[in-house]
């Protein structure tokens, strides 16, 4: 199957409408691909906290509508990155959307691990609590977002839910690029999955984005990586590699799930 990561430039001077038009154009150009992945919160700006309330939208909002139409036009599965979703009760969520080749919404994942400690996402957004995988015509896709990469428990949950490929939209800070590179390889290697990590580039909210979107195979080998400009990375994946590698190096079979916490002496 053929997958493309569309590493969008998200700068403070852009409006959400301008970003939607640009993203839709880039997705429409990917006719012939099987899966296209966009970055995290690219419409609102992942670090532009002051824009979230204004840019929040529902699952039928302008970003979802534009991405649904683009997926249908290109005939691709589209991981539309994530949006600032406003729930009916007013709570904001960082929500990933996965559309099928007909433009139908097939997967929604609310980010479980919210970044910011005592600021930003951690205080302005609610957290999800569902592990989400979606069957497609090329394999089972698991959904995670950015900061989730630091929490292996989620990726084990995705593995147990059948994931063969995990898509991770992100707005990772350039200052921690070395962590991004390490964690994307580690998560792919430990779960023996393909990992498609699409990070924004540009600067907004005072934060320079890392770029360096990457496709990593189940051996932990980087099959392709961007730099810091807006660009599209396209890689052909052999999904039969997932069961082959899991059989050749059956480490997942040796998991011990009954380890007990130490007792006091």
From TrEMBL:
What's the source species' lineage? Bacteria, Bacillati, Actinomycetota, Actinomycetes, Kitasatosporales
What region holds the CN hydrolase domain?
Answer: 1-239
Q: Which UniProt keywords apply?
A: Hydrolase
What are the recorded GO MF terms, alphabetically? hydrolase activity
Q: Where is the signal peptide?
A: none
Show the SUPFAM superfamilies listed in the entry. Carbon-nitrogen hydrolase
Chain segments annotated as coiled-coil in the UniProt record: none
Q: Which InterPro entries match?
A: C-N_Hydrolase (IPR003010), C-N_Hydrolase_sf (IPR036526), UPF0012_CS (IPR001110)
Q: Name one Pfam family in it.
A: CN_hydrolase
The name of this protein is Carbon-nitrogen family hydrolase
Family membership, please give it.
Answer: Belongs to the carbon-nitrogen hydrolase superfamily. NIT1/NIT2 family.
């Amino acid at each position: 199957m053929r997958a493309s990561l569309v590493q969008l430039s998200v700068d403070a001077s852009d409006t959400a409408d301008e970003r939607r038009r640009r993203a839709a154009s880039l997705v429409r150009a990917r006719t012939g691909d099987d899966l296209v992945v966009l970055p995290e919160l690219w419409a609102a700006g992942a670090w532009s906290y002051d824009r979230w309330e204004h840019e929040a939208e529902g699952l039928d909002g302008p970003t979802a509508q534009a991405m649904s139409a683009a997926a249908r036009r290109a005939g691709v599965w589209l991981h539309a990155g994530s949006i600032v979703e406003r729930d009916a009760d007013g709570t904001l969520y960082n929500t990933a959307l996965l559309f099928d080749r007909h433009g139908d919404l097939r997967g929604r994942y609310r980010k479980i691990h919210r970044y910011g400690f005592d600021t930003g996402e951690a205080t302005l957004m609610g957290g999800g609590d569902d592990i989400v995988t979606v069957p497609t015509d090329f394999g089972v896709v698991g959904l995670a977002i950015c900061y989730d990469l630091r929490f292996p428990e989620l990726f084990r949950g995705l593995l147990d839910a059948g994931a063969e490929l995990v898509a991770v939209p992100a707005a990772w800070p350039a200052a921690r690029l070395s962590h991004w590179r390490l964690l994307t390889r580690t998560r792919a290697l430990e779960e023996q999955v393909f990992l498609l990590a699409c990070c924004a580039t540009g600067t907004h909210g005072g934060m320079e984005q890392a770029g360096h979107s990457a496709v990593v195979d189940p051996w932990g080998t980087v099959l392709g990586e961007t730099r810091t400009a807006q660009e599209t990375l396209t890689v052909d994946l052999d999904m039969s590699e997932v069961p082959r590698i899991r059989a050749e190096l059956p480490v997942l079979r040796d998991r011990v799930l009954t380890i007990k916490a130490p007792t006091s002496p």
